[in-house]
Design a protein that fits this description.
single chain; about 375 residues; alpha/beta; Nucleotidyltransferase, domain 5; 3 domains; five-stranded mixed sheet
């Protein structure tokens, strides 16, 4: 019988990663050899690869195929392995099949062995055994830093604001607004009994104001950098952000996140892939007599999904004559609040596909207003 295995003659390597140790599972399709090395010890990793070739009866120039689960280590391991003339697959952990027993043994040894077995099936042609992550280049990954840092800083600013409001409400003082001038007003505030604020409380509030001031300065710097990149585009993603802003109702934040996280470096073959990556596709449950809808999958990028929900509401407001808005008004506008929320998610998916066609093929959404 003819052997159709594509993994023969290759060294398959699965990396089970942790912060302190890496467990390596080597296989040629039959026997599995495992070794443990210090995390990020690249020289030891290469030595173990050469030793595995020798122990498993492969030639020194035999091809090597590696895999590991996407996680906190990011993609530097992928780039380094690829630079050593080896093939590497980064796997989506949520797509890996697991035993469904109520109690199952789980150890790094078993996980590494299971991972290398799945790698063998993948190399033999079973492309549905797991989902492989599309890895950005180092330059593309660096493009994500600006808006992600800005998002993190805004969360820190909100935390400081909530903290200061909570400290003041303890003494019967309610403040509103963004509290930019709060530091100057603290000395004039009085408690419920008309006495000045306690010294320790004032000192803590002053420190909170200082930290919030630093955060505001950093946010302003990042905002200026973003506006400069949109006005004078440097990359393909910058050009896409500038094009998206031309559509009425699409703001700088939405355009920047969509171009950097979604359209700038990913490749889509059809509209189904666009909706799936954003996690906006339906998830039916149809088995026997049981048939129900479980809602959207939420399996894609949460950043893109949240931006698209906000953008869908904005689109209905600022693009009332577009075909997408008319579709939403016809099907959901006269329903309950819950039906409108369900409808806006459906509109978000349709709008995302329309924006993909706009930035990729220059097709303007039907009836949309362009500045």
């Amino acid at each position: 019988m003819k052997d159709n295995s594509h993994s023969k003659g290759k060294l398959l390597v699965a990396l089970e990663l942790s912060n302190s140790k890496w467990r390596l599972a080597f296989s040629t399709g039959e026997k599995v050899r495992q070794k443990v090395v210090e995390a990020r010890d690249r020289d030891r990793f290469l030595k173990e690869v050469d030793r595995a070739k020798e122990k498993l009866g492969l030639s020194g120039n035999a091809p090597v195929v590696c895999c590991y689960e996407a996680g906190r280590d990011g993609f530097w391991i992928y780039h380094w392995i690829e630079s050593r003339d080896m093939v590497c697959h980064v796997v989506d952990p949520a797509s890996i099949e697991v035993n469904r027993r109520k109690r199952r043994a789980k150890t790094d040894r078993l996980d590494a062995q299971s991972l290398v077995r799945l790698l063998q099936r993948y190399e033999d042609g079973d492309r549905y055994v797991w989902a492989v992550v599309h890895v950005p280049s180092e330059e593309q990954e660096d493009e994500l830093r600006l808006h992600r840092e800005m998002s993190r800083l805004k969360k820190e600013r909100a935390a400081h604001l909530c903290r200061m409001k909570s400290l003041l409400i303890l003494h019967g003082i309610k403040v509103s607004g963004n509290l930019k001038a709060l530091d100057r007003e603290l000395g004039e505030m009085t408690r419920w009994n008309q006495h000045p604020l306690p010294k320790a409380l004032l000192a803590e509030l002053h420190r909170e104001c200082l930290r919030m001031g630093q955060i505001n300065e950093q946010i302003d710097v990042l905002e200026k950098q973003k506006l400069e990149r949109i006005k004078k585009p440097q990359t393909n993603a910058d050009h896409q952000a500038a094009e998206l802003i031309r559509l009425k109702g699409v703001g700088e934040v939405s355009a920047w996140v969509l171009s950097k996280e979604f359209f700038g470096w990913r490749e889509f073959k059809n509209r189904r892939e666009v909706g799936s990556l954003a996690g906006l596709t339906p998830t039916p449950y149809d088995s026997g007599d049981s048939c129900r809808e479980q809602g959207i999958s939420k399996a894609g990028s949460p950043r893109v999904r949240s931006v698209m929900i906000e953008l869908a509401w904005s689109w209905v407001r600022f693009q009332p004559d577009s075909e997408l808005t008319k579709w939403f008004e016809k099907r959901f506008a006269h329903g309950s609040k819950r039906m409108r929320r369900v409808g806006i998610v459906a509109l978000a998916r349709k709008l995302l596909i329309a924006l993909w066609k706009y930035v990729e093929f220059g097709i303007v959404p039907e009836g949309a207003i362009i500045h």
